[in-house]
Amino acid sequence: MDLFNGETISGEIHTKWAGNTVHFAEKTDSTNLWAKRAAKEGAVQGELFVAEYQSAGRGRFTRRWEAPRGSAVTMTLLLRPEFAPRYASMVTLIMGLSVAQAVEELGIETGIKWPNDVVLSRKKICGILTEMSLVGSRIDYVVIGTGINVNVPSFQEEMEDRATSLYLETGKLYDRSLVIGLVLKYFEKDYEKFVRTCDLTFLKESYERFLVNQNQPVRVLGPDTYEGISRGINRNGELLVEREDGRVCAVNAGEVSVRGLYSYV
């Protein structure tokens, strides 16, 4: 088990504001809930909440998310954005991109299954849950919960075909503090590009370089289920899908899900 605490994490963070204060706990209910409580008490942008174990970790659609002690990164970053609430959903894609960039710097070939699932060998290594609180019509805070399967040695049978870890893919153990430092390094750069335009204009090329769905057959699952070819993303982070009749549809992650034609990816 790697040495992993607030001091080791802070030692790997070399940013201007992302991770400016590190809060570490051996156990918490969920890092998102912890960060939201702190936000209500005045915590500032960039504060980071990291736990060795979450008793009530959650993914999208309130799915339970849990990892063995000593094996994963479970963290939440607090933001105090000045942009309008309608732009907040793109922050999830930015974190997905930042995790992919960090994993690539570790020398591991990775990709992103739209919108924000970071994948190795077509299996997921990262989950992201972004939540927002409003005061009137403006954002009070945004919390971005990120779970990364770093040194996870195995998964339950029902997850084996969809989940993996850096360790399982490479046979190497990784310093989780270093992983956090790399993610925050890229997130700070990517986020600052995003807030210049409140869209992905300056990140689109970087994102599409990792996009495993790029120019691949996909099935869009929703009220209007159909198949087509993924043609990348637009500046709002929507997936562009070319249908059989040549029409290109912009797919919003909040409304539908997308799968590879023959598999999860």
Q: How does the overall form come out from the CA principal axes?
A: globular
Termini separation (Å)?
31 Å
Identify low-pLDDT runs: none
The count of β-strands is 13
Could you explain how this protein is built, in words?
The protein is α+β, with helices and mostly antiparallel strands and 265 residues long. It has 6 helices and 13 strands. It has helices spanning 6-11, 31-40, 90-105, 166-170, 176-197, 204-210, and strands at 22-28, 48-54, 72-79, 111-113, 117-120, 123-124, 126-135, 138-149, 217-221, 226-233, 239-243, 248-251, 257-260. The longest helix is centred in the C-terminal third of the chain and has 22 residues, at 176-197. The protein is globular and about 55 Å long.
Q: Which key features would you list for this structure?
A:
alpha+beta; 5-stranded mixed beta sheet; 265 residues; 30% strand; 5-stranded antiparallel beta sheet; 6 helices; globular; single chain
What topology emerges from the helices and strands here?
Layout: H1 6-11, E1 22-28, H2 31-40, E2 48-54, E3 72-79, H3 90-105, E4 111-113, E5 117-120, E6 123-124, E7 126-135, E8 138-149, H4 166-170, H5 176-197, H6 204-210, E9 217-221, E10 226-233, E11 239-243, E12 248-251, E13 257-260
Parallel strand pairs: 1-2
Antiparallel strand pairs: 2-3, 3-8, 4-5, 5-6, 7-8, 9-10, 9-13, 10-11, 11-12
Summarize the structure.
With 265 residues, the chain is α+β, with helices and mostly antiparallel strands.
